[in-house]
């Protein structure tokens, strides 16, 4: 899993340098402890807690491999 965290770190650093936004939000899945660790390393702090919901059979991806989710602004 260290390889995924390293690649995620490179992508995040590149995005922050490219887009330079002073404020960022990052929605994480709590099952991915490496993503939470990476967010902390980059200075992110918890601000909100989202609840994932489903109806019917629970279909969960490999959450430990997901380092981010699309934001609400993407619809």
* Low-confidence sequence ranges: none
The oligomeric state of the chains shown is single chain
Give the beta-strand count: 0
Overall 3D shape: globular
Broad structural category: mainly alpha
Estimate the mean pLDDT confidence: 82
Order of helices and strands: HH
Topology:
Elements: H1 2-19, H2 33-41
Task: Please outline what is shown here.
The protein is mainly α and 75 residues long.
Keywords summarizing the entry:
0% strand, mainly alpha, 36% helix, 2 helices, 75 residues
Q: Can you walk through the features of this model?
A:
The chain has helices at residues 2-19, 33-41. The longest helix has 18 residues, at 2-19. The model has no long low-confidence stretch (mean pLDDT 82). With 75 residues, it is mainly α. It has one domain.
């Amino acid at each position: 899993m260290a390889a995924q965290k390293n690649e995620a770190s490179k992508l995040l650093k590149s995005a922050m340098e490219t887009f330079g936004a002073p404020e960022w939000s990052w929605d994480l899945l709590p099952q991915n402890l490496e993503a939470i660790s990476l967010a902390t390393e980059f200075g992110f702090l918890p601000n909100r807690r989202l609840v994932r919901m489903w109806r019917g059979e629970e279909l969960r991806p490999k959450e430990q491999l997901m380092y981010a989710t699309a934001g609400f602004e993407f619809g």
